[in-house]
């Protein structure tokens, strides 16, 4: 990406690539090859929201009340927030310092800018929850260093920045291109596609009981964004597989499966920290199967074989959480809410 070549000809669409575009003029949005990225950018804009638009009044009352929440519920909520508060900062950092820097597709870079902003909105949402409830900000935001199960998840993910964040790192060799692909697998498929999901489930568990519903609504908006991030990451992986099929070796595929298995073990450890005794019909065993179920679906999305073949133990969550139809879900939720209110008459 050197200086502009004066009088140079327009970019050849056939030379556009996610990485290693031979004609890597990232200033020209057209010709647009990776239209999935443009679609994601438009969808992200259409879904724009801000945390402060959501009322936290009920949550504030319940959090202050001595009786609305059990000690186990409070601890579960805090631990989940402890994970969330730093997770989106970690994701944002990788989008900007890793994905964006090395991607040669202008439309993908457009979406990554949107994605980075959405990660900031998510961190804002957690900040807003913590502030609204009068929690100790320093304690919650530092939990990723103090709570073993959060630390281990984050440490696992962050270890895949090594190399990529090196100022001398460049794509264009077999080894480095696989390293970049590995980074997307870890951050999109695992961080955004697996590590967020048991925490989402906890928040929906509260919501089903009419508890902390403002926080849960924040999380619904976050989940809608995150499912876009996940789909975008899957598209990046599958497009790179098409553009550079030599990278997708049997060894590399097995490596991706092994990474997902390590992530499933870490996520299970996290779930047992959140639910040492189990609450509202969810316990660590249920979570183990849910995590396995999600992991199989993620593997399938990049063409890798299922490893666990389990039923979804929380079928009530499949609509709420594991959706590819975010809009329908939100319309349904709003409609049901309205109908419920009218039934009072
Ligand atoms: Fe994200």
From TrEMBL:
Binding site for Fe cation 1: 88, 119, 122
Highest taxon of the lineage: Bacteria
Record-given protein name: Ribonucleoside-diphosphate reductase subunit beta
Source organism of the structure: Candidatus Kaiserbacteria bacterium RIFCSPHIGHO2_02_FULL_50_50
Named cofactor requirement(s): Fe cation
EC number from the UniProt entry: 1.17.4.1
Transmembrane segments: 184-206
Pfam families linked: Ribonuc_red_sm
Active-site residues per Swiss-Prot or TrEMBL entry: 126
Family under the similarity heading: Belongs to the ribonucleoside diphosphate reductase small chain family.
């Amino acid at each position: 990406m050197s200086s502009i070549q004066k009088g140079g000809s327009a970019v050849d669409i056939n030379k556009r690539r996610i990485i290693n575009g031979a004609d890597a003029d990232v200033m020209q949005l057209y010709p647009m090859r990776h239209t999935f990225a443009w679609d994601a950018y438009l969808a992200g804009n259409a879904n724009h929201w801000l945390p402060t638009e959501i009322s936290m009044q009920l949550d504030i009352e319940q959090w202050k009340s001595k009786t609305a929440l059990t000690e186990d519920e409070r601890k579960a909520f805090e631990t989940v927030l402890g994970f969330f508060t730093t997770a989106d900062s970690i994701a944002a950092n990788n989008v900007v310092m890793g994905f964006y820097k090395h991607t040669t597709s202008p439309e993908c870079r457009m979406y990554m800018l949107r994605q980075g902003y959405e990660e900031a909105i998510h961190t804002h949402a957690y900040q807003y929850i913590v502030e609204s409830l009068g929690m100790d900000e320093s304690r919650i935001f530092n939990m990723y260093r103090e709570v073993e199960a959060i630390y281990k998840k984050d440490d696992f993910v962050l270890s895949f920045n090594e190399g990529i964040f090196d100022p001398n790192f460049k794509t264009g060799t077999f080894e480095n291109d696989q390293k970049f692909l590995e980074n997307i697998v870890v951050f999109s498929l695992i961080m955004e596609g697996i590590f967020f999901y048991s925490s989402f489930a906890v928040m929906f568990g509260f919501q089903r009981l009419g508890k902390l519903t403002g926080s849960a609504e924040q999380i619904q908006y976050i989940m809608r964004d995150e499912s876009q991030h996940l789909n975008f990451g899957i598209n990046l992986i599958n497009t790179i597989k098409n553009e550079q099929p030599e990278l997708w070796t049997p060894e590399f595929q097995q490596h991706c499966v092994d990474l997902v298995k390590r992530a499933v073990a870490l996520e299970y450890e996290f779930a047992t920290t959140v639910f040492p005794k189990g609450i509202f019909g969810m316990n660590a065993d249920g979570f183990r199967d849910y995590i396995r179920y999600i992991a199989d679906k993620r593997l399938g999305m990049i063409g890798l074989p299922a490893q666990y073949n389990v039923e979804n133990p929380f079928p009530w969550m499949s609509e709420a959480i594991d959706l590819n139809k975010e809009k329908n879900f939100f319309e349904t939720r709003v409609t049901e809410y309205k109908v419920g209110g009218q039934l009072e008459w």
